[in-house]
Amino acid sequence: MLPPFVTFSRNVFIPLTNICRNKCGYCGFRRDINHPEAKLLMPPEVTDILLRGIRAGCSEALFTFGEHPHEVSGFNERLFQLGYDDIIDYLQYLCKEAISLGLLPHSNPGLLDKQGFKKLKPYNASMGLMLETVGNISAHSGCEGKIPIARINTIETAGQLNIPFTTGILVGIGETGYDRVSSLEAIRDIHEKYGHIQEVIIQNFIPRPGTEMSSFSAPGLKEMKETVLMAKEILPEDVAIQISPNLIDPKELIHCGASDLGGISPETIDHINPERSWPKISELQNMVDFPLRERLPIYPKYIRKKWYGDGIEPLIERFSDAEGFRKTY
Predict the structure, then answer these.
(1) Are 213 and 207 in contact (CB under 8 A)?
(2) Quick check: 6 and 290 in contact, CB under 8 A?
(3) 16 and 63 in contact (C-beta within 8 Å)?
């Protein structure tokens, strides 16, 4: 069944730090602690991005960063200079800042325990963690944070706390077809238990210069169509399938069952795939055969269920229409 419309959100992308304990074979975002491009954004830098997002009409502040950067020698000294000894406490402060300025946070902090989720839940409209794959692949060799059961446990913990959640799989990073099926089935099983997964991203691998997998081939359209069709068959109907229109032409994938284009930033680049520019929001309609509808980082279903904290309730009321989508003016 094809969607009656295709959704997207309007966001700003805040790469809080590119220091990460993992060294994935396909990642061009991570930097070593002493690399000249290694960074931890300062509060004024984050505020500047937030204000740019507000001026551009965004509703979402997307916070993402390297996983467990505190495990990298030298990182904590940078954090201490800001007055924090925990990156999650710093993220919590910045989420509060985003809310005070008028944006709804969506955070992707990597593996997180219940205590960390409890700190962030009141100040996030939704959160996320890519499962990527349940397969044992060489690209994740030595990456403690990419152990599948650890990522599954994090996604389940979010479900236990009623946190609207985004997850997904990466296609073309060395996984098998069986791995893809098993990954989607694992996501399905978690959602059927907790009901918190609002969208699943089917993201195609893009080779990045300077990475171990720079010479690998990206999956083609046929392979991506097959994967979206597979996801449509496996996932429950109330879970949206998301694709990235800066990484692949979305038109045929929507005819296979995708229904969401994810966060589109009119102001910031895709820091994970900086060579791939976001389409302009004015161009999105020409990329799909269905009407577009703008949403918030929290899906309407979870607005109706009031799965959000008191701290963001005024913003949700300001932004959402009677159905829970982005209000038009």
Answers:
(1) yes
(2) yes
(3) yes
Instruction: Report d(CA 211, CA 174) in Å as an integer.
Output: 14
Residue 163 lies in a domain: yes
Q: Examine residue 276 and state whether it is found in any structural domain, yes or no.
A: yes
Using DSSP's 3-state secondary structure scheme, residue 17 falls into: strand
Rounded Cα–Cα distance for residues 130 and 207 (Å): 18
Q: Domain for residue 78, yes or no?
A: yes
pLDDT attached to residue 274 = 87
Q: Which tokens is 324 given?
A: 């829970």
How many structural domains is the chain composed of? 1
CA distance 205 to 234: 21
3-state secondary structure 91-125: HHHHHHHHHHHCCEEEEECCCCCHHHHHHHHHHCC
Residue 282: which residues within 8 A CB-CB, separation 6 or more? Answer: none
Place of tokens 């009031």: 306
**Domain that includes residue 190, residue range:** 6-319
CATH, residue 188: 3.20.20.70
Share of the chain above pLDDT 70, in %: 99
Q: How far is 122 from 64, CA to CA, in rounded Å?
A: 17
Both tokens of 209, joined, read 């210069």
CA distance 216 to 25: 11
Which residue bears the tokens 């060489």?
A: 138
What is the identity of the amino acid at 167? T
CA distance readout (Å), 328 to 99, 204, 320: 20, 32, 9
Q: What pLDDT is recorded for position 170?
A: 98
Does any domain span residue 71?
yes
Least confident of 30-44, 57-71, 278-292: 278-292
- Measured CA to CA, the distance from residue 308 to residue 98 in angstroms comes to 15
CA proximity to 27, closest of 243, 213, 244: 213
